[in-house]
Amino acid sequence: MFGYQENIRTNLSLFPQWLSVLERNITQYTPDGNCETNRLDQCHLKKWQNFLTRIQSLPQREQLIAVNQFANEHEYILDIENYGIDDYWATPKEFLYNNGDCEDYAIIKMLSLKKLGFDMRKIRLVVLQDTNLRTPHAVLAVESPGDTLIMDNQVDEVISHKYIMHYIPVYAVNEKKWWMFLPQ
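Predicted structure:
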């Protein structure tokens, strides 16, 4: 990916924030509520679930595009402003209520694709260095036949990793594995 060699690992305990997102996503449900209130409640999830139901019958490529656009419509906000800490990985429910930063976009995209039935073995959250902006960044990578497509909160289109020259991957994770990247 991005011209780097991948080294696959299975010990996810090195990524406590990622494991916390997965666990909180399963357990973080509250009773139905009113989306107009300032309470984090179930109705925010209903809007997401209704969106996923509407696109369920589309071809996979169109689902990727729709999920990317849906997430990217939310406001970018730094974790320090949202949660008072430098780095917090939000569940989809938290993202839908609070908006978020780059890994939060990637997380909701990943879990949207999971709900749509995509093969999760072919999907990874990639933490990387953006050499143009000189800052850490995160995107979602989706393997497709003969290519890896990138879903990025900075780009409206879903594009091939082959056309992105300014990203240096650091590591990637999914529900079962993680990848370390080495120069070729």
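Summary: The beta strands are 4-9, 123-130, 135-144, 147-151, 159-160, 167-173, 178-183.
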